[in-house]
Write a structure and sequence with these properties.
The protein contains 17 helices and nine strands. With 358 residues, it is of the alpha/beta class. It has one domain (18-356): TIM Barrel (Alpha-Beta Barrel). A seven-stranded parallel beta sheet has the order 1-4-5-6-7-8-9. Strands 2-3 form a two-stranded antiparallel ribbon. Strand 2 (102-105) and strand 3 form a beta hairpin. The protein is globular and about 55 Å long. Bound molecules: coproporphyrinogen III.
Length: 358
């Protein structure tokens, strides 16, 4: 099957208890017993038990060990009682799996030896098959057996954000090489994003077919673009990704940072749930996104460094702005910061559950 074909009858048999979870119900804009909570980057350096099991194992190596992936994915579920698990991996894992010479440098992020900037470079981006990532299928099998009624979220990087790492060669503040390619050679850019859309689609399909109950597309750095450029140069590729997994019937979440001006267009790419960072209140975000979508967000992750009272007050503001939404999944406006006190996260989950119990 090609990456862009919509499958109709290949979805994993849905476990009924998972289907009735608060998280999936909120994504589907159905009534919930309480507002569900999970955190982007909930598995990771904020947890001492994570640092312990990761000792001496490089980030990308850890993503290829199913037992370790299972343990790390479960850690925040056990500790915080979040309403969903997110699969422990990274947005660059599928690129590594097809042979791109990249590494994740601690404290830096993904770094690529030879950036992708020419038509000849495109040949290095071949299609991804399930055989390239057997450890993903295996880990998700282990996880769904352990998770009970807790849904598992699969994820991938969106074409723009992956392109940014590949073209820049690493993390970038201004994305100048990426934008130079986008403005300077629109055809090469479109072909690059199409290849990345196919890889991302294939990676999401592997996760859904192995048992993931929802997927999130991370377009973390897309907020660097003006709406007109997003619509012209990025939206078509992201839309292909969402369309390619539409037939599975699992909720699709779309998230980016600094996307206040892009919220409507992000919704147009086809997700069921739009993630919102902390810069736009959720009621205003709902007006920008328009009807028919749930929202996810949006407590500033830095708020967790303030005292318990301040956290509770800011949490109240988020919940107040979320009152009229068709569906709300509580999350941070971006990932958990590494130095966050894990107890503050545990308290936050309990607080949201308590304040929204129906
Ligand atoms: O959310 C989770 O808990 C699941 C795991 C997850 C990781 N990366 C693990 C990870 C997820 C969902 C990601 C997504 C990811 N990776 C994104 C999108 C989310 C976002 O933050 O915007 C991006 C942009 C990346 C690329 C990336 N990988 C960065 C910027 C970094 C941080 C580099 C650093 O060390 O500061 C990574 C490495 C990474 N990915 C770590 C983890 C736990 C830290 C590495 C470590 O623990 O050694």
């Amino acid at each position: 099957m090609s990456a862009n074909e919509i499958p109709t009858d290949r979805s994993t048999p849905a476990r009924p208890d998972v289907q009735q979870s608060a998280f999936l119900r909120a994504c589907r804009r159905e009534p919930v017993p309480h507002t569900p909570v999970w955190f982007m980057r909930q598995a990771g350096r904020s947890l001492p038990e994570y640092r312990k099991v990761r000792e001496g194992i490089a980030m990308l190596d850890s993503c290829m060990q199913p037992d370790l992936v299972t343990e790390i994915t479960l850690q925040p579920v056990r500790r915080h009682h979040v309403d969903a698990a997110i699969f422990f991996s990274d947005i660059v894992v599928p690129l590594k799996a097809i042979g791109i010479d990249l590494d994740i440098k601690p404290g830096v992020g993904p770094v690529i030896e030879r950036p992708i900037r020419s038509r000849a470079d495109l040949d290095r981006l071949r299609e991804l098959t399930p055989e390239d990532v057997p450890y993903v299928t295996e880990a998700i099998g282990l996880l769904t057996a352990e998770l009970g009624a807790t849904p598992l979220i699969g994820f991938a990087g969106a074409p723009f954000t992956l392109a940014s790492y590949l073209v820049e060669g690493g993390p970038s503040r201004n994305h100048e090489h990426t934008k130079a390619l986008m403005y300077g050679d629109p055809q090469l850019w479109a072909d690059l994003l199409d290849r990345l859309a196919a890889i991302t689609s294939a990676f999401l399909k592997v996760q859904i077919e192995a048992g993931a109950s929802a997927v999130q597309l991370f377009d973390s750095w897309v907020g660097a673009l003006a709406p007109v450029d997003y619509r012209r140069s990025v939206l078509p590729a992201s839309r292909k990704v969402f369309a390619s997994v539409a037939g599975y019937g699992v909720p699709r979440i779309h998230f980016g940072v600094g996307t206040g001006e892009l919220l409507h267009d992000l919704g147009e790419a086809g997700a069921d749930v739009v993630g919102v960072d902390w810069r736009v209140p959720l009621d205003e975000a709902a007006r920008r996104v328009g009807p028919g979508k749930a929202l996810q967000g949006n407590l500033d992750p830095a708020v967790l460094f303030a005292g318990a009272e301040a956290v509770a007050a800011k949490t109240g503001e988020v919940l107040e702005a979320a009152r009229g939404l068709e569906g709300h999944v509580f999350n941070l406006g971006h990932g958990v910061l590494p130095d966050t006190d894990p107890d503050a996260l545990t308290r936050l989950v309990a607080d949201v559950h308590e304040r929204t119990a129906r």
